[in-house]
Prior knowledge:
Elements: E1 4-9, H1 15-25, E2 29-34, E3 39-41, E4 50-52, H2 58-68, H3 70-75, H4 78-86, E5 106-109, H5 112-124, E6 132-138, H6 144-164, H7 167-182, E7 186-192
Parallel strand pairs: 1-2, 1-5, 5-6
Antiparallel strand pairs: 3-4, 6-7
Amino acid sequence: xxxxxxxxxxxxxxxxxxxxxxxxxxxxxxxxxxxxxxxxxxxxxxxxxxxxxxxxxxxxxxxxxxxxxxxxxxxxxxxxxxxxxxxxxxxxxxxxxxxxxxxxxxxxxxxxxxxxxxxxxxxxxxxxxxxxxxxxxxxxxxxxxxxxxxxxxxxxxxxxxxxxxxxxxxxxxxxxxxxxxxxxxxxxxxxxx
Length: 193
């Protein structure tokens, strides 16, 4: 694989991590991030989410939730999700703090507001390299079932971009063909580092 990919959702827990896990398994150069202020996981009620700072290890979250209510967090899929995340990387990372990670060729987001935040962040960075980055939004609901579907679609899209060679020359056709095949509307933009 020759391109660097970034998967981005709000909390770097579900959608971005499912895609990260699948792409990593297939040999892609991939990283993942969240754009929120904090990492939020469902709690015992909508008004009581579990809130963590970015950088808090997945293992610490896993142990914390297993101590609080193992049955609830196993039943709602949070403990299995955190176990998967542990196998991919140590802790959730925040997109806005990723400059030291270098540049990416393709950034895939899973929610329109995340797409907007990534573009805004890229726009506010110094553009010294003038290296293009393709930013694509594939809208995926934030639940385990949709994340699994979204992860497979992200893998397919990244495989098609890799196979195309120089994506800049054929991005419109790539996107149009993907939309037609999968009955999903994509939003995309090109930004620069």
